[in-house]
Model the fold of this input.
Amino acid sequence: MTTRNRPLSPHLQIYRLPLLALMSITHRITGVGLVVGLVALAAWLGAAASGPAAFAVAQSLLGSPIGLLLLFGWSVALFFHLGHGVRHLLWDTGWGFELPQAYASAYVSLGVTAVLTVVAWAAALLV
Done:
C-alpha cells in the first residue's frame, strides 16, 4: 500500500469556521483590544494631567488618520464586546442555546455593533 502525505485533520486553509466559533474568537480578541485601548486612554489622561505640551502631542497622535483608525477599531471592539456580553448574559439565564436562536442572536449582536458604532461616530462628528 502506498501512503499519502496529507493532513490528518482539516487545516485553516480549507476548513471554514462556523459563525458561532468566529464570534467566540472575536469576543476574546476584542477583550484584549479593549485592554490595549484602556492603556492608551490612560496615557491620554496622563498627558492631559502633565500639561498643555504633552496633551497637544497626545491629541495630535489621536487626531491623525492612524489614530482615528485605532479609535474607530476600539469603538467597534467596545460595541462588539458589549453586544456579545449581552448574549452571554442571556445564555446564563438559559435562553438561546438552540442553534437557530444562537445564530439569530449572533446576527443581532453584529447588527447592534454596526448601529452603535455608526451612531457613536456620527454623534462625535456632529459635536
Q: What stands out?
A: The longest helix spans residues 19-50.
